[in-house]
Amino acid sequence: QAHLVQSGSELKKPGASVKVSCKASGYTFTSYAMNWVRQAPGQGLEWMGWINTNTRNPTYAQGFTGRFVFSLDTSVSTAYLQISSLKAEDTAVYYCARGEGHSGSYYHRYWGQGTLVTVSS
Amino acid sequence: QSVLTQPPSVSGAPGQRVTISCTGSSSNIGAGYDVHWYQQLPGTAPKLLIYGNSNRPSGVPDRFSGSKSGTSASLAITGLQAEDEADYYCQSYDSSSWVFGGGTKLTVL
Question: Percent of chain B beyond pLDDT 70?
Answer without folding.
Answer: 100
